[in-house]
Amino acid sequence: MSEQARKRDVPVAGARYLRKPVPLLFPSEESVPVTKRHMMLRTALFQTLWLAFEGRFALGSDQFVYGSPTRPSDSCAPDLFVRRGGPAEDFDCWKTWERGAPELAVEIISKSDRRDWPWEDKLARYQALGVRELVRFDPDAAD
Prior knowledge:
By secondary structure, the protein is an alpha/beta fold. 32% of the residues lie in helices and 16% in strands.
């Protein structure tokens, strides 16, 4: 191994690794099919809050929220989330260790939610991320 290659593998002076560190990936998107109704509800909610807050709060919709800098699997993608106290700015994904946890998240329930992911598990995931309030909207729920 050349001297230059060794320097790339040892980023901290004197540190040696048993194996080369592998960077963690935090994807900003994933292809998940949604129904037209779900997309319309999510979009209407996002646009309503965007107009109400006039860009004063950070808003996200269907973007990954990551809870740990070492475990990309500790994440969720709420239909909408809100974080007060900062300007609205563009972001691909939300990393809680950089921006804090969203204060509010909204989940619009779909058939796949009912079948694939029990609500108690989803609620526990949001709590672990530090989300203060989680709203569950089920458009098919009986009055």
